[in-house]
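All the exercises in this workshop are built on plain-text protein records. A learned vocabulary of local backbone shapes supplies the integers on the structure line. Once this layout is familiar, the rest of the handout is easier to follow. An example says more than a description, so a record of this kind follows:
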Amino acid sequence: MKNVLLINGFEIPHYRVPVYNYLCDYLIKNNFALTVVSKGVQEGNPHTIWFENRESHLYWTKLIRLIIDTRPDVIIFWVKPTLNMWIVLYLAKLLKIKVIHWGHRRPEHPNILIKTFVLNVLEHWVDDAIILYAEHLRKYVWNRFQSKTFVANNTLNLTIYKHLRRPREDVKAKYGIYTNKNIICMGRMQRRKRIDDLIQSFRMLNMEDVGLILVGPDSEGILANVNGENIFKLGAVYAEESLDLLSASDVYCLPGHLGLSIVDAFYCGLPVVTENVMHAPEIMYLKDGVNGFMIPKGDINQLAAKLKTLLRDDALREKFSNAARKEIMTNGHIERMCEGFLNALQSVCK
């Protein structure tokens, strides 16, 4: 049994707990024992933890002491590039421990070229393997490191979800939703998500039987002045209730920065409509014209047109819905993610 230490560079988010649980069980079956070290778990976590989780201050002296005490065979870094973590990385190499970086490995704007250079020189050069969230992210890894690069499609642990949803009309009644068909947008309401484009396009629809459901915390006050007929602002809704709302809706629309919310939307069989902007890696699941639509950035008219098409054409919407569900239950299944981890670990431990 090889010992793997995963450094989670901050508090473990709620959604990662079931992912780590599944990954832990999967790796044990393949002779790898997983331990996660983190600052703790995000407050309010609703999930039971059965992976080994060690809480620690993540300063390099504490981490090195932990590494010396536990002597892992492999360290996986899920962290932001910082001087503190670079010290841990290089000291681990001095201790002859295999190291892997996991993440999107795509530097955010600005200075993306400079940051790509820094990542490849300071991290990828000494990595024994690299695990990416998606295949299309390989372009940020230099050619000389492609042979040690693996892909683990970033996703959620859908196996914890119940397959039976509450009746659609019961869910709508609970939240006071009276419209026949509904567009839903779920997640943190942030400017980068271009919620204003969605509001404008919805108002252009002029369809009396269609509603817009906005679900999520609004710390930036984006929805403060958003009111009107058939607009339902529900605030934060989590866990199974969020899936009930998705299943009771017809189309998912988030114009900007679409991330893991596409996994839940597709799981619930919702076609997704978004704009061609800088999205999170999970945009890989969207197949334009197959399970959703990708429209030009800021094209409100086309955004409204695609939404109207899906709302009016029941047969097309059902076709997209089936394709969405199939995509996420194959390429987005957590087994695919775990396979990527196993491939990387087996490679470095040969």
The mean pLDDT is 94. Residues 159 and 339 are 16 Å apart (CA to CA).
